[in-house]
Amino acid sequence: MSTEPDRTSKPRKQIHLAAHFPGVNNTTVWSDPRSGSHIRFDSFRRFAQIAERAKFDFLFLAEGLRLREQNGEIYDLDVVGRPDTFTVLAALAAVTDRLGLAGTINSTFNEPYEVARQFASLDHLSAGRAAWNVVTSWDAFTGENFRRGGYLEQDQRYERARSFLHATQTLFDSWHGDEIADDKATGAFLAEPEPGRFSVHDAFFDIEGQFNVPRSPQGRPVIFQAGDSEQGREFAAAEADAIFSRHGTKDAGQAFYADVKDRMAKYGRDRDQLKVLPAATFVLGETDAEAQELAKEIRHQQVSGQTAIRFLEQLWNRDLSSYDPDGPLPEIDPDLGEHTVARGRASVRMHRDPLETAREWRELAERKNYSIRELIIEVTGRQNFIGSARTIADTLDDYVQSDASDGFILVPHITPDGLGEFADKVVPLLQEKGVFRTEYEGTTLREHLGLRPLPRRDARSTAAEPTVSQTPEGVAA
């Protein structure tokens, strides 16, 4: 009997696709001569133009606010620096026409007026293609680069983030006239009296004045959330337009999808007003067997012996440089003291119970006879699709039609040109299936995502403030 879900009662969902230009990461195969610079603008331009040629919804940039360190030295096994997100996205707005431009911007070490002004400007410059992945910073190490470094307790960082988002929304909505005309004769913007007037007074912000950027094409950027925690799911259900996820199986994806979307009704929102978009890698081959062999080779390139030891140190919180990556795991347990080996790494915080995680890793290594390197290759893998173009197209479609996601944020292992193979081989098959656009139908990112136009809010209203989950540098919590 067929296990395919019954899809005769509802129309086939359209797949949403985005492209992630990986920043600080262990995805890019740096040893491959095809890997390009992560500093030169040409890399970002080529990547964006491939995504737009394939009619993707948006390009996504993560953001790091400090160079990471391990054992007291700069962690040099991946990208150690990258240009400012706003600068890159603004430049990309000039060389693309329809592609959405999404960036991770931190709410802990910025100010509402500054961030609102930058996003409103980007939305104008791009004609309505801006998106904001809202995150907070959790560690004092990153905060040392800023005046406020590390001064807030964890619960207060949540509260500040919530107030920050409320404040930026107040600023975005401060130009609340239905029509704003540009008087070409005088260069003046015409609106109802007191355009841009705002007032925000709470425990974190005491600001009022006049916002100097007229209402942008989308009203505000599309709001993204990266979070798997209880608070992250609630924020997404209440406020976000899209949520990233990191579930590696179809069953886990379906459970997450149902949980988040079931929360939306209590906030007066329809399920289709939130898109669930897991990150995913892909490996293409002429046949499924060829792709599987290639995938094994790529994972060994991504996780060198040195990289495996560095990843293990992040859990063990010890210097393990004397250990053989092709040997067994350490017999000693992780150090539960203050994290000093790896600083500025999201993965340190992700292991909430180091002893339990170490126990699970030991059991896995013993069961499968894994070395340190083989173990790290498995436990650091993300959602991935491996096979021929036809197999990958069918699998992506199955996940979306089965409500395991609404689409995917693709992370190629070669940048900037690694996306091209997917664009040329998989996208046409999705178009043949009728589940992916052949041309852009709208001009704004909200239209690409199938989101409704935003209602206008009064900047002087006392609407309930949204909540935000705390996530490190755009990585799901």
UniProtKB/TrEMBL annotation:
What Pfam family does this protein match (any one)? Bac_luciferase
Extent of Polar residues compositional bias = 467-477
Q: Which GO terms describe its molecular function?
A: monooxygenase activity; oxidoreductase activity, acting on paired donors, with incorporation or reduction of molecular oxygen
The question of whether Transmembrane is a record keyword is answered with: no
Q: Which InterPro entries match?
A: Diverse_substr_monoxygenases, Luciferase-like_dom, Luciferase-like_sf, NTA_MOA
Extract the ranges annotated as region (Disordered): 450-477
Residues forming the Luciferase-like domain are 31-402
Which positions in this protein are listed as binding FMN?
T104, Y158, S229
Q: Could you tell me where the Basic and acidic residues compositional bias lies?
A: 450-460
Which key words are in the record? Flavoprotein, FMN, Monooxygenase, Oxidoreductase
Q: State which Enzyme Commission number(s) the record gives.
A: 1.14.-.-
Q: PANTHER family in the record, alphabetically?
A: ALKANESULFONATE MONOOXYGENASE-RELATED, C2H2 FINGER DOMAIN TRANSCRIPTION FACTOR (EUROFUNG)-RELATED
Regarding protein family, the annotation reads: Belongs to the NtaA/SnaA/DszA monooxygenase family.
Name this polypeptide is given:
NtaA/DmoA family FMN-dependent monooxygenase
